[in-house]
Amino acid sequence: MRKILIVGAGQSGLQLALGLQSNGYEVTLMSNRTADEIRTGRVMSTQCMFHTALQHERDLQLNFWESQAPRIEGVGVSVAGPDSSRVVDWVGKLDGYAQSVDQRVKMAGWMETFAQRGGQLVIHGAAVSDLDYFSRTYDLVMVSAGKGELVSMFGRDASRSLFDTPQRALAVAYVHGLGPRPEHPEFDAVRCNLVPGVGELFVMPTLTTSGRADILFWEGVPGGPLDAFQGIKDPAEHLAKTLELMEKFTPWEYARATKVELTDANATLAGRYAPTVRKPVGRLPGGGLVLGVGDVVVANDPITGQGSNTASKCAHSYLHSILEHGDRPFDEEWMEATFERHWEKTQHVVKWTNAMLGPPPEHVLNLIGASGQLQPAADRFANGFNDPADFDNFFFEPEKTNAYLGSLTGAQG
Fold it and tell me: Which residues form a coiled coil (predicted)?
């Protein structure tokens, strides 16, 4: 039986650990926190998982919260004009519903499941020196802890990393008491509110430790009016600032948020990081090699909601690469090939996300505007969140965008 060590208990690390475990591998999982510490700790993300990523969880029978989490049936886009009125407002319907489960709920539950199924769970913050030792006792060591000392082992891939500084200041609040969006009270949607030159507000339903909730998530251009959360430590003050900015920049969303309150004392998060693609193989001082997983190797800005989706798809791809490799050694060549297989699909996510961080070119503004009158365009844009590769066909190049819109209106592109 092959012995595998996974360091880091997030979406990719846990999904991979449970997948390998169900295929008979002897898996050790290292986490710097217990399941209880995760469950009662601070919110970690704004995860919204679309159909393909959810199906990877279903295939491993890990979709424990599917019946409880709200079904997200659409992705809506609103654009604010200079006077804070809405100049664009539409919602595209998803072919397969999306869901958001607070990672405190999911990671704690998955970690307990891993231990109950006989996996070795080690609660210990790993250092590079620890991995040096472990690399000699395991067939494969993988690192899925996306922060801290271990990430420094994986060099930045300059050819695949467009930015070297954060492109957005991020501020998250989980709340109860948000009213329905009046345009579609009969179904839930992720709402993307674009404030040109200023940033974005995302609103999405989720399942948290206390049941159904909603996430209010500001992405602010650094140095701009939304970059206002640094130094705010008090959760109530964080929420007050969130609502103040909503009232000013997205009054239509503020109108349904006047009665909200935080879900718990740890329901806020703020920070920033540079979107980065890293080299997949880390070299240990003693000569051992480790493979990077999830956002260790591909850390996108959350503007396109792809973090947990990419992590799930990475775990899925790596699982198949490991199973197919059989008893052969997990050498550097295999590690590089395993990442490149994942990159084939993930490169589309990186390209789209990086494009969304810049000022939209005229043809993209036309596409977003036209989607208000052309429901098929709205639906296709929404479903791109599940399959970002499709954006290559109608989003990036003016000729393709114009030809696509022409095909819907009967005009020539």
Answer: none
User: Would you say 332 and 289 are in contact if contact means Cβ atoms under 8 Å apart?
Assistant: yes
Given a contact cutoff of 8 angstroms between Cβ atoms, the answer to whether 227 and 201 are in contact is no
Mean pLDDT of 347-361: 96
248 vs 234: CA distance, rounded Å? 21
In our burial notation (b when 16+ CB lie closer than 10 A, e otherwise), range 314-337 reads bbbbbbebbeeeeeeebeeebbee
DSSP code string of 289-300: EEEE-GGGTEE-
Residue 401: count of CB within 10 angstroms of its CB:
22
Checking if the pLDDT of 245 tops 70, the result is yes
Distance in angstroms (rounded) separating the CA atoms of residues 264 and 365:
38
pLDDT range class, residue 191, cuts 50, 70, 90: very high
Given a cut of 70, whether residue 146 has pLDDT beyond it is no
What CA–CA distance (Å, rounded) separates 345 from 233? Answer: 38
Spell out the residues 6+ positions from residue 284 whose beta carbon is closer than 8 angstroms to its own: 128, 131, 132, 135, 153, 290
Q: What is the mean pLDDT of residues 235-255?
A: 98
Mean pLDDT of the chain: 96
DSSP 8-state secondary structure symbol assigned to residue 224: S
Strand stretches in 19-135, DSSP E: 26-31, 72-80, 86-98, 120-123
In this structure, are residues 16 and 58 in contact, taking their beta carbons and an 8 Å threshold? Answer: no
What gap in Å lies between CA 197 and CA 201, rounded to an integer? 13
Measuring CA to CA, which residue among 275, 303, 304 is closest to residue 382? 304
Checking phi first, is residue 33 left (phi over 0); if not, alpha (psi -120 to 50) or beta? beta
Report pLDDT for 411: 64
CA–CA separation, 291 and 324 (whole Å): 17
For residue 199, what is the enclosing H or E element? strand 199-208
Report the C-alpha gap between 48 and 98 in whole angstroms: 7
Q: Residue 70 has which token pair?
A: 């709200």
Amino acid identity of residue 68, one-letter, is: Q
